[in-house]
Amino acid sequence: MSGLFPLSGVDIDGLWRDGRRLLKTAGGLVATMSPAARVRRKAMKTETFLVQGMTCDGCVASIRRALEGIAGVKEARPSLEKGEVTVDYDPSLTGETALRRTIEAAGFDVN
Ligand SMILES: [Cu+2]
Prior knowledge:
The chain is of the alpha+beta class and 111 residues long. 27% of the residues lie in helices and 38% in strands.
């Protein structure tokens, strides 16, 4: 079973569900990912914020925990040495302003 397009002898039910196309085959239903869903998966964004007030590993841990608690944040990597935090996130679920506010709410200043 391969591809997103009908093969001869394969009956398509014509519906897209959650970005998947259901194919009816002799072996049963097979779901394939739609091109749109593939694009959505890749649409992650990375942003780096300068953070003031990080002084120890405890600060690093609180910033990471706060940011990774936001829906859409995949990973937050604070650097004590550089005084910054780099965040990988899904821009369809959160944004720069929410990330900034979360860092501030954790007790730090963001530039
Ligand atoms: Cu600290």
